[in-house]
Amino acid sequence: MRQILSLKYRPQTFDEIEGQEHIKKTLKKAIAHNKIANAYLFCGPRGVGKTTTARILASCLNCTSFSEPTISPCGKCLSCRDIKYSRSIDVLEIDGASNRQIDDIRNLRENAKYAPVFSRYKIYIIDEVHMLTREAFNALLKTLEEPPPHVKFIFATTAPHKLPETIISRCQRFDFRKAGVEEIVSRLKKIAQKEGIKIEESALYTIARRSEGAIRDGEVLLDQIAAYSDKVITVQMVEEILDIIPEETFFSYFALLKEGDKGKLLAFLEKLSQSSYDPIEFYSGLIKFFRTLLLVKNDLPAKILGLSPEDYQKFQKEVDTTKEEEITRILSRLLDTEEMMRRTFFPEILLEVISLKLLSRDD
User: Fold this and answer.
1) Which of 42, 124, 138, 166 has the highest CB neighbour count under 10 A?
2) pLDDT given for residue 72 in this prediction
3) Which 3 state secondary structure label does DSSP give 123?
4) Are strands 39-43 and 151-157 parallel, antiparallel or unpaired?
5) Which terms does the UniProt entry file under GO BP (predicted)?
């Protein structure tokens, strides 16, 4: 049976994780010096590797190929394989959303008293831990503060502000950040090479930007797009499949603004409204487009902006003939009316009015 890419290429060691260097370095040192905490709290947005890191940490602690915890689990022993395939009876993954009541935590406390069957530690990985009820958190406190020596807790959450301070203070907290576009591109490129997926580099950048910092989302999107065609995947294919407004559309809009022809500009917007593109999404794209122009104008490199070399050259060519004051003026106007655009019942008409005002230099 075919595995989806995000599962097939799920990291099994710290070194395989893309990014999160501060977390990998700290956990490795803690394991190497045998300074392992009773409880860990992994915080961060979705798709950035919290649960994956929790599994790797569990493998490090329970790998039976070594006489003590290791920073490089073998991946071959029974413990490592059971953790990989989510069938370990000593490493229990619990969904906080569906096991959130006090009775669920009471059962956990009762089971925690018993020693692990095959492994060094009994490890509880609770995902979306912020979903537990107040009573469940209170029931967990004592066990969390003084757990049996064979028990470790790893909590993962996208909303640490919803956790009681009494829980947070008993954990070592690690904050996961969103992955950069370059990190996602690097990851997707490795997977594409292993899978024999032919894809343009600019297309990888488009997928990475759409992922918005979540490597898992990027892998899912690559899987989806690879199923669409066995030919070379182009930027145009990615934009079509994911319904992304092409970057060229924003360049064309700016060109019409600089040309100053009201008729052509309104005709362009009318054609846009007849397409499948959401006017609010187009408006948000305009803000990002002019922000990128402003940053390129101020010599920020392509790597920081998450642009392919080809795309960066397009922006550079545009800013070479545009004054910074003009870019700032347009961007300010768009930001001033952003809330109005989100609230209006007639976004197409408002977009036309704003665009005509942008033609004026009397802002």
Assistant:
1) 42
2) 94
3) strand
4) parallel
5) DNA-templated DNA replication
Residues in the chain: 363
Residue 281: both structure tokens together: 């999404």
Can you say whether the dihedral through the CA atoms of 176, 177, 178, 179 is positive or negative?
A: negative
* CATH number 1.20.272.10 given to 247-359: yes
**Cα separation, 113 vs 124, whole angstroms:** 13
**If one looks up domain 181-241 in CATH, what number appears?**
1.10.8.60
- The set of residues, in sequence order, having a beta carbon less than 8 Å from that of 161 and lying 6+ positions away, is none
Q: Which two tokens stand for residue 361?
A: 């230099």
Q: pTM of the prediction?
A: 0.86
What sign does the CA torsion over 72, 74, 77, 80 have? positive
Residues of the chain with pLDDT under 50: none
pLDDT in tens, 36-65: 999 999 999 999 999 999 999 999 999 999
Note the CATH architecture for domain 5-175. Answer: 3-Layer(aba) Sandwich (3.40)
Q: For tokens 């054609």, what's the residue?
A: 271
CB half-sphere exposure, 267, CA atoms < 13 A = 6
Q: What is the pLDDT of residue 36?
A: 95
Spatial distance between the Cα atoms of 195 and 197, rounded to a whole number of angstroms? 5
